[in-house]
Amino acid sequence: MKFVSEYRDPKAAGQLAQAIRRKVTRSWTIMEICGGQTHTIVKSGLEELLPKEVTLVHGPGCPVCVTPIELIDKAVAIAERPDVMFCSFGDMLRVPGSSRSLFDAKAGGGDVRIVYSPLDALKLAKANPAKQVVFFAVGFETTAPANAMSVWQADHDGVRNFSLLISHVLVPPAMEALLSSENCLVQGFLAAGHVCTIMGYEEYFPIAERYKVPIVVTGFEPLDILEGVLMIVDQLESRRHEVENQYSRAVRREGNRPAQQRIAEVFEIAPRQWRGLGEIPASGFRLRERFRKYDADLRFPASGEPAEESPDCISGLILQGLKKPHECAAFGVKCTPENPLGAPMVSSEGACAAYYHYGRRQERENTRAELPVA
């Protein structure tokens, strides 16, 4: 069943939900990797359309959310320097470090700029030669081509007051880390369509085979996700574990080769720390030796006390699909978008933000209302 012209048609959504109900015979747990998919699921109420046998859990597919707290602290320290112009996408500003955020640094007088592209930051570096311009390069494979291009262009143009603070992470190693955990609940994955637009999906074949888990590359509209769930359920019920592409209108098996070539020219694979997940081998990018002079992590050596997460935040469990936001005791009480304890409450792709903004906080409020009065 393919829907080409309208991806939010309620009638088609009902047809897909009915098809899933007819197909399912037992309980299955499916994880959507991407935070954008999580927001579509919660905003559109897709979980309410699915049969009770199908459980959707939310994965570590929000790059803002998995940026380690130590790197947030370093970003704040760099942004507070008088010789620095610190550039970032807007949803990083309220992400809490161990004590302060980039928004706090800006409020305290730091020159923190919201930009829409790393090339905007490069333009600022050219226009402000007396300043060190640092761009917070956060993201999955999707944003890597633009970040690679900014460094390549800076090198080509001889710009020396530009650098990246890098927190680039990769999806397949995170999936393997989850599947390797003894606590893993996931039986099928909805893979992130935008990542596969860049990288293709050939690297998912060995994962599906090794862990006997179906993987479906899925888009971001409600019908995309419902069709992806149907494809996963069909595989699970048939005891198959294949890689399929629901998002064929945007994703090719080989991905975007020119973008991959630019990434490979500028970046190399490295281990990365993930907030809530710890270090995952070969799960991120760092600059190759030729471009290492543009690494803000080396340009501004670390200092300060080791960072610590809030003991009330369970974002690590949420990012692993072991808990949902409304199961957190702090959700909507101690932790709100105005005063977040963790990144998932403030990121535009965070699961906690989705639950809060689209009404799922009522589940938490209803739970409190049902508690007996002492």
Write up what this structure looks like:
The structure is a single chain. With 374 residues, this protein is of the alpha/beta class. It has 2 domains: 26-311, Rossmann fold (3-Layer(aba) Sandwich), CATH 3.40.50.11740; 315-369, no CATH class. It contains 16 helices and 11 strands. It has helices at residues 10-23, 35-44, 46-49, 69-79, 102-107, 118-127, 144-157, 171-180, 193-199, 205-211, 222-237, 257-266, 296-299, 315-319, 351-357, 361-370; strands at 28-34, 54-61, 84-88, 111-114, 132-139, 162-168, 188-192, 215-218, 243-245, 267-274, 278-287. The protein has a 5-stranded parallel sheet with strand order 2-1-7-8-9. It has a 4-stranded parallel sheet with strand order 4-3-5-6, with helices on both faces. Helix 7 crosses helix 12 (257-266). The protein is globular and about 65 Å long. The model is unreliable at 1-5 and 364-374 (pLDDT under 50).
Q: How far is the first residue's CA from the last residue's CA?
A: 54 Å
Would you list the SSEs in sequence order as H and E? HEHHEHEHEHEHEHEHHEHEHEEHHHH
The CATH class of the largest domain is Alpha Beta
Going by CATH, what is the homologous superfamily of the largest domain?
HypD, alpha/beta domain 2
Number of domains: 2
CATH fold-level assignment of the largest domain: Rossmann fold
What distinguishing features does this structure have?
374 residues; 2 domains; 5-stranded parallel β-sheet; 4-stranded parallel β-sheet; 16 helices; 11 strands; disordered C terminus
